[in-house]
Amino acid sequence: MTEPLTPGEERLRRQAAPESDIAAATRTLVVGPYLTRAAERSARNDETPRSIEARLDEAVGLAAAIELDVTQAISVQIQRIRPSTYLGKGRVEEIAGLIAAEDIGLVVADCALSPVQQRNLEKAWGAKVIDRTGLILEIFGRRASTREGTLQVEHAHLAYQKSRLVRSWTHLERQRGGFGFLGGPGETQIEADRRQIQERMTKIERDLDSVTRTRGLHRKSRARVPYPIVALVGYTNAGKSTLFNALTKAEVKAQDMLFATLDPTARATRLPHGETVILSDTVGFISDLPTSLIAAFRATLEDVIEADILLHVRDVSHGDTEAQREDVDEVLRELGIEANADRIIEVWNKADLLHEGERTRLANLGKQNGGAKPVLVSALTGEGLDALAASIEARVAKARSTFAVELGPEEGAALNWLYENAEVLDRRSEEGGAMRLAIRIAPEKEPRFLNRFESARRIGTPTS
Prior knowledge:
Domain Hflx-type G: 228-400
Function: GTPase that associates with the 50S ribosomal subunit and may have a role during protein synthesis or ribosome biogenesis.
Structural class: alpha/beta
Largest sheet: 6 strands, mixed
Number of strands: 14
Helix content: 40-55%
Subcellular location: Cytoplasm
Keywords: Coiled coil, Cytoplasm, GTP-binding, Magnesium, Metal-binding, Nucleotide-binding
Strand content: 15-25%
GO molecular function: GTP binding; GTPase activity; metal ion binding; ribosome binding
CATH architecture of the largest domain: 3-Layer(aba) Sandwich
Mean pLDDT: 79
C-alpha cells in the first residue's frame, strides 16, 4: 500500500493542470545537435549508434509527453562540442533566425547542456532553453504519483537546479547582513539559495530512507510468503505496462507514450501449474539517462535488483531495437546485473506490428541464442503469452525439486494442501479412487512437505 501524499505534494500535483495549459500554448522547437557517426563512435565507443531520425523522433516524443506544442524539429550534425554554446556560431545564428520567424518560445535541446551553454543559448536565441535532462525531469515531475516517486523527482530536480542557480539571479552582487554573532560581510544571495536547496535535499534524503525502509519491510513480508518476484524491465514505451496488464488482468496506465509508467506496481498472478508469482512493473529506461537520475530512482528499481526473474521487454518492431537493448543492458550493469544473467528472459514484444519476413528473421535469430531463447509476443493481441508463462514457469522450476506422491481416496485434505502449496504437474486416478501425482515444490516448503508426505519419492532435483 502506497503512502499518501502530504498536502504540499498534493498541491504540486494539482498544479499539473495549469502547467498543461501553459505547455500546450508554448510554441516549441526541438533541436537535435548530434555528433557525426564517426565522431560519436570515437567519443562513446558505440558499436550500435542510434539513427539520427530515431533520436529526433524520441526527443519529439519526450516533448509530447508533457504536451508541448512542437511546431518543428530539426537535427544538426556537429563534428565536436563547443564549450560555450555546444553548437558552432553559424548554427546558433541560423537557429536564431528560425526562432524569430516562427515565434518560438521554448527550445528543447536533445543533449546535456552545461549551465554556461544553456545561458549563452538563451541569450543568443531570446527563448527559454531546456536540455534532455531538464525535459526528462519535467516528465518525471508530472507523472510521479506516489510519495516515494514525488520525493525522488524533487531530489533530482533540486540537484539539477543547484548547478544552474547562476542562471536564475541578476542580483548576485547583493549580500544579506550577518546574523548576530556570525558577523562578517554576510552571505551572498546565491549562497543562501544553495544552502536552502541543500537543506531541502537533506530532508528529502531522510524521508527517502524512511520510505526505503518501509519498502524493505514489505519485501521481507513477501519473502515470508514467499512468492517468486518477476520484474519487467525495458526501454521506455516497449510495452511493459500493456504486457503487465495482459498477464495480471490489471488496469495499470498503458499508453503509446514515453514514460507512461514511473511508479512501481506489483500484482500477483498464477502460472499454468498453479504457482503464484509477484509481477512488478517498473519505470522504463532511456538512452543518455543521467547517472543522477538513475541514483534518484534506485529505490524504485530495488525490485529489479532483488527479482528472481527479469523480463527484458523489447519493442522488436522499432528500428533501433538493438541500440535500445544495449541501453537497457548498460543500466542493468550499473545495478549490478549482467545482461547474460540466467534469470533474464528476453521478451520480443509488438509482434503484431511485424510482417512475415521479419518474423522469420527474428525466429532464426532466436534459434542462434541457444538456451536463452527469447519469447515473441504481442501484449496487445495476446499472441505468445502462453509461451511466455511457460518460459517463466520453467525458469522458476530450475530451483525446485519434483516428487511422486500417492494418495488414498480419503485424503482429500492432503490433496487440497498440495494444490495450495505446490505445483501439481500431473494427476492420475487409479482403481478404487487412489491418486498418483507429480508435484513441484519450492525449496523453503520442502521440509513441511516431506514431514507430511513421508512416502513421497523425489524424481527431479534443482538444475540451477
